[in-house]
């Protein structure tokens, strides 16, 4: 919805005069919000979660339908800037390397469209500044999150294997690794020929029946939804348990601002309900779990005379230090068929061989390479087959003969990479959208070049005869991190080690925004571990929030 | 003027595709000739005109009316240059010009995308995809048994020293 330049957010309307009251108010029902709400309910807290989206209907899962490829490409597309769900807010992406921000406004959040990769960070990920003069150190470390990683592994049902020598030892995971299939075997052959470290990817996929969810039957293309529920999402793990534990969930609730009192403490929120009216919710503790775009958006929308630069923003860092990972793919073309129509799509095996800093490579930090599977007929045609007389020959050359390596590198937090309010576009409730600005640093460019070179090497070692890669012109925006970062210094961070805003001690940020650095790995497991820990911290300090 | 024709997340179900309602007869004729050159047939594959590609595009314009002016501008551009009267080679030449044009290149891309969407979801085309490439689009609904992960593959890696920094 376009307003034109200099538009202001829809003016505040009187609310209905009736407040929803809770012990803890959580804005956002995604990966972090669901885990936090569940954990707090286990302690006995009265939790209200406001989620701007709705439950994803079973009928809407693309893979329930014969035309799943078109459904996946259209209404299921992850790109928030183009998709246009009723609950979406406008997103524009600018900069030297624009991020195609991937956000799902739904119960379960952006995990709605994920592939299930679950990683623990390693100890050095929390000490970038000390070890590598990279970014900032987190005010917490691996040992602080370790017990919460273990809880999340059980709750989400992670399939994988303990014993990875590129990470600290862990207890056995609840489920064995998912099946690799023929392409997985080729990738493992490649890793072995190269002599690299590698390990089966840990994934939130039920490799056996688990807590009422059936074992995966290798339907493939997991990001297009899992009709069986074998792929874990917050909607089929934390949410049922949270609701059973008494958590109240309101969907279709667009929060327009966090309200504060004369002491500068958060008192609750105002939100546009599904009925179109403006409602008020109050609680002694308010938690924002709206992801790396949504959380700074809400903090900035909550500007007031007391907080003219946005709520909790005395540091000026709300919205800044956006990290997205240095991401691209390298697609190998193999003489043999690659089984692109089946198998867990997000990963087979993966390597952290290049993870830790090795200054001889000419950059700080590192990257992972995740060996995956091939594209659909429609996507292969769009990417490789062009049009005209040779369309069919090109399609036949590429389809079911390709498999992807996904690379992800550690991009340094930089203030100019940021999220701002979009003064030109509003959502259906008249609330401002966001604009992202992102440009790869020189260090990130070098990481990317090396990652592509190594992934290419892996493709050929696995038997590929050619490769293609789209490069880094535009970045896939699956991971939106760092925009309300954690730190000990209030002048250099937004939240403290327990996720409490330095400026507003009963307001918490619990999502990827709080990450101080992003590591090189998929963040969901760490986001959820942080949320579980934050819940315990809130509960332990509940006497501070009368 | 740079035209854009991105329907974004608009989805058109197969049952919504029928007789054109937005496109007039001339536009339909030009689009039929257009998609015929985008995906011609051969001895194995049907042409796009054997699928409801133009009906799909028309239905998309109904669902996303903001896109219609751009598509009609591209159709008009082709009509002005006698697209329908040209032979196959002439049509390909005009389409390449359209694709390369600053004003309408984005529209060309959108029409190509919509054509491929309609084409590859057609059951007859899915059957050819399976026959020619082995990719079975129905496996996403039926599943595929796979053997479990073979831990013996990790024999070498398990013997390697730890490779991470304590902090």
Kindly describe this structure.
The complex is a heterodimer of chains A (546) and B (167). With 546 residues, chain A is an alpha/beta fold. The longest helix of chain A is centred in the last third of the chain and has 20 residues. Helices cover 24% and strands 17% of the residues of chain A. Chain A is built from twelve helices and 20 strands. In chain A, helix 1 links the parallel strand 2 and strand 3. The two termini of chain A are 41 Å apart. Chain A has one domain: FAD/NAD(P)-binding domain. The radius of gyration of chain A is 22 Å and the shape is globular. Chain B has 167 residues and is mostly helical. Chain B has one domain. In chain B, 51% of the residues lie in helices and 0% in strands. In chain B, helix 1 packs across helix 4 and helix 4 packs across helix 5. Chain B is elongated. The model of chain B has no long low-confidence stretch (mean pLDDT 96). Chains A and B meet through helix 2, helix 6, strand 6, helix 9 and helix 10 of A and helix 5, helix 6, helix 7 and helix 8 of B.
Any key phrases for this structure?
heterodimer; A: alpha/beta; five-stranded parallel beta sheet; 12 helices; 20 strands; 24% helix; B: 167 residues; mainly alpha; 0% strand
């Amino acid at each position: 919805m376009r307003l034109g330049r200099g538009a202001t957010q829809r003016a505040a309307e009187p609310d209905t005069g009736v407040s929803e009251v809770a012990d803890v108010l959580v804005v956002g029902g995604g990966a972090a919000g669901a885990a936090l709400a569940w954990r707090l309910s286990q302690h006995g807290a009265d939790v209200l979660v406001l989620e701007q989206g709705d439950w994803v209907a079973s009928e809407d899962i693309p893979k329930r339908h014969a035309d799943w490829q078109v459904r996946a490409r259209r209404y299921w597309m992850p790109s928030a800037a183009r998709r246009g769900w009723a609950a979406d807010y406008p997103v524009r992406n600018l900069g030297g390397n624009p991020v195609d921000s991937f956000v799902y406004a739904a119960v379960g959040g952006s995990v709605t469209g994920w592939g299930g990769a679950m990683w623990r960070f390693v100890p050095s990920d929390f000490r970038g500044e000390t070890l590598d003069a990279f970014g900032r150190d987190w005010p917490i470390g691996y040992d602080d999150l370790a017990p919460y990683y273990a809880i999340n592994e059980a709750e989400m049902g992670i399939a994988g294997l303990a014993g990875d020598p590129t990470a600290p030892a862990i207890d056995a995971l609840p489920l064995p690794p998912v099946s690799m299939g023929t392409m997985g075997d080729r990738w493992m052959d490649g890793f072995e020929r190269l002599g690299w470290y590698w390990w089966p990817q840990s994934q939130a996929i039920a490799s056996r029946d688990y807590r009422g969810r059936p074992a995966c039957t290798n339907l493939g293309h997991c990001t297009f939804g899992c009709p069986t529920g074998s792929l874990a999402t917050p909607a089929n793990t934390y949410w049922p348990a949270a609701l059973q534990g008494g958590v109240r969930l309101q969907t279709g609730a667009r929060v327009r601002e966090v309200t504060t009192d004369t002491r500068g403490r958060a008192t609750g929120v105002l939100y546009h309900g599904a009925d179109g009216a403006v409602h008020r919710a109050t609680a002694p503790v308010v938690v924002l779990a709206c992801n790396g775009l949504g959380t700074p958006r809400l903090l900035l929308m909550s500007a007031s005379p007391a907080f003219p630069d946005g709520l909790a923003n005395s540091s000026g860092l709300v919205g800044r230090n956006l990290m997205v990972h240095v991401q691209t793919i390298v697609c190998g073309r193999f003489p043999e068929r690659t089984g692109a129509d089946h198998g867990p799509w997000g990963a087979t095996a993966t390597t952290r061989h290049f993870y830790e800093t090795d200054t001889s490579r000419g950059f700080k930090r590192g990257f992972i390479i995740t060996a995956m599977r091939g594209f659909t007929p429609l996507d292969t045609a769009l990417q490789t087959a062009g049009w005209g007389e040779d369309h069919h020959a090109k399609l036949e050359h590429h389809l079911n003969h390709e498999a992807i390596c996904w690379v992800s590198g550690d991009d340094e937090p930089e203030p100019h990479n940021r999220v701002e309010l979009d003064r030109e576009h509003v959502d259906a409730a008249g609330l401002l959208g966001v604009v992202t600005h992102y440009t790869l640093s020189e260090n990130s460019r070098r990481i990317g070049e090396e990652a592509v070179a190594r992934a290419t090497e892996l493709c050929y070692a696995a038997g590929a005869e050619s490769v293609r890669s789209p490069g880094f012109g535009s970045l896939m925006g699956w991971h939106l991190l760092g925009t309300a970062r954690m730190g000990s210094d209030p002048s250099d961070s937004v939240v403290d080690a327990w996720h409490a805003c330095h400026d507003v001690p009963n307001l918490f940020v619990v999502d990827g925004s709080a990450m101080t650095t992003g590591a090189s790995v998929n963040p969901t497991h760490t986001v959820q571990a942080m949320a579980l820990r934050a819940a315990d911290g809130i509960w332990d300090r509940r006497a501070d929030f009368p | 003027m740079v035209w854009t024709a991105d329907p974004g997340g608009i989805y058109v179900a197969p049952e919504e595709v029928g007789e054109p309602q937005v496109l007039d007869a001339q536009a339909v004729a030009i689009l039929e000739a257009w998609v015929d050159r985008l995906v011609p047939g051969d001895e194995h594959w049907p042409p796009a005109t054997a699928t409801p590609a133009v009906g799909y595009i028309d239905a998309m314009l109904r669902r996303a009316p903001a896109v219609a002016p751009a598509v009609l501008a591209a159709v008009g551009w082709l009509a002005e240059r006698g697209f329908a009267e040209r032979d196959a080679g002439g049509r390909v030449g005009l389409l390449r010009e359209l694709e390369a044009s600053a004003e309408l290149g984005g529209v060309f891309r959108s029409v190509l995308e919509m054509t491929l969407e309609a084409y590859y979801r057609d059951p007859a085309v899915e059957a050819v995809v399976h026959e020619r490439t082995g990719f079975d689009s129905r496996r996403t609904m039926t599943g595929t048994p796979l053997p479990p992960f073979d831990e013996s593959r990790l024999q070498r890696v398990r013997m390697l020293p730890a490779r991470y920094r304590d902090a």
